[in-house]
Amino acid sequence: MWSPALVPKPFDWGDLYDVVGTVTMKGAGSSYTPSPELETFLGHDGGPIFVGFGSMVLGDPRATTKMIIEAAKQANVRVLIQSSWSDMAGDLEIPDNIFFLGNCPHDWLMPRVSAVVHHGGAGTTAGGLLAGKPTFIVPFFGDQPFWGRAVVKRGVGVEPCPIAELTAEKLRTAFQDLQSEELRSRARAMQEKMQKENGAEEAVRSFYRHLPVQQMRCDLDHERMATKWSESDGVKFCERCNLLRRSRPESHWKDVVEYHAVDYAARGQELANLTRFIAAPPPPGMAVFLQEVGWAVACMNHVGGVVRDVSQFLLLSCFTSWDVVPAK
To answer: What's the total number of domains in the chain?
Structure first.
């Protein structure tokens, strides 16, 4: 559920996958009341640069804060630091160009800043771009490097830098690059495209578009959903038809089992395979290998290429049945 303006649907995904747009909802911003100090800090010079790492836990919050302060000083910019999980202020002396903020709705805050620096979570990335803000992503793990590359590829962000490699010099450069009028213009253009999307509505349409309606229908009453399966007749039928069948001699209905149009459950030998896989110790080096593969995929330069959740695909392929079969 992301914007096709940011990451278009790859050409090789086929009809099974849809990129529906960013799904948004009315947040808490409409009822948020800022402090007078926050209003004053936000209210001039085009807004400060937002820096926030969400729920990411910093190894050394004090050192990170000192880095941000030094970079802001060198770049001659004002910075608003949102400290959620890590205590970043501590006992440091905070200069006038730095403001610390606790919890605050992003849908209220981001339209009031000039640019955003964050960890690259999918939601935070979308929030910054929906507000039309140039973006610098400092990824920690997971899909965050992917979004860091995506904003660069679309021309609405600067080159990402992993948190472990971030320095005051690199942050200063990012602060300065985020002031580019060309970057701001492209971010506003991205905002206009994303605001025209209706991700929630398109997600619902996608859901119904992919429903296997024919497989869900009762073979005898097409207006009703099939819940039973006759193994002897090879017929699926609804609860009402099942009641009618039960009025016939027992030999005609004793082979009836529960029916699922699509069965994702692991049963029998499939379940035994899954249990054995989970219980077995990982092969030597497997953890390192998977980590390397994950980072390689996440850091692919070409966002439009084949992007798959490989681990989920393999697990489902090995241990579940995708065929339309009755439950056993």
So the answer is: 3
